[in-house]
Amino acid sequence: MTGKNISLFQKIANEKGWTFKQIGERWGVSERQMSRIANAGNQRDLDSVNGLPSVNRCMKYEEAVHDQALFAATEGLALSKRLAALSRKKDGEERRKEAQRLEKRFSNHSSRCFTLGYMYEAVGRTDLQDMIQGLSIILMTDALIALQDPERWAEACRLAGTTTDVSVSVPEKQLKEWRLDFLGALKN
């Protein structure tokens, strides 16, 4: 992250002790993509880099919890993208096993959100607790059940009188809005 023209994004990252490689690993993008993000100068990206903890000092407990909440949103997006890709694959043993592995990841994610919600409740930040619950709701889906065991899914739908169609969408816009709302709530 050196050069003659340093972007605001890069300046903020440098002040906090972060490299593009570190941020890229954290955000799930390549170092090259990080360079594009930094040069674009979008406000949401500036907000995100501002929300990173400082590597140069010990992180306070509260900052660590906030950081985990933002990571949960990032992880939720990555899981949703994996689910959408999986839903486009042809049914078979490999897809069903991958759906089971992905279900475990979603379960761990849900547990993380529950724990964060409890932590926010314990310190009286019910506004942030509600936001964490909202994050869990954004990511809820029946698609994993349908992908893991299509026969049982079809039987359950038949009994319920519903269609077996499963819609898998990536809630990218909702998660971006959630992040911005969350960062705004931290300022209160």
- Summarize the main sheet: none
> How would you describe the shape?
globular
- Low-pLDDT stretches are none
Distance between the amino and carboxyl termini = 33 Å
The count of strands amounts to 0
Strand content: under 5%
Mean pLDDT: 86
Q: In DSSP terms, counting alpha (H) and pi (I) runs of 4 or more, how many helices?
A: 10
How big is the Rg? 19 Å
SSE pattern: HHHHHHHHHH
Structural class: mainly alpha
Question: Could you estimate the helical fraction of the residues in percent?
Answer: over 70%
Outline:
With 188 residues, the protein is mostly helical. It has helices at residues 8-16, 20-27, 31-40, 43-50, 61-87, 93-122, 126-139, 143-148, 150-160, 172-186. It is 73% helix and 0% strand.
Walk me through the topology:
Layout: H1 8-16, H2 20-27, H3 31-40, H4 43-50, H5 61-87, H6 93-122, H7 126-139, H8 143-148, H9 150-160, H10 172-186
What can you tell me about this protein's structure?
The mean pLDDT is 86. This protein has 188 residues and is an all-alpha fold. Helix 7 runs antiparallel to helix 10.
Write a concise keyword list for the protein shown above.
0% strand; 188 residues; 10 helices; single chain; mainly alpha
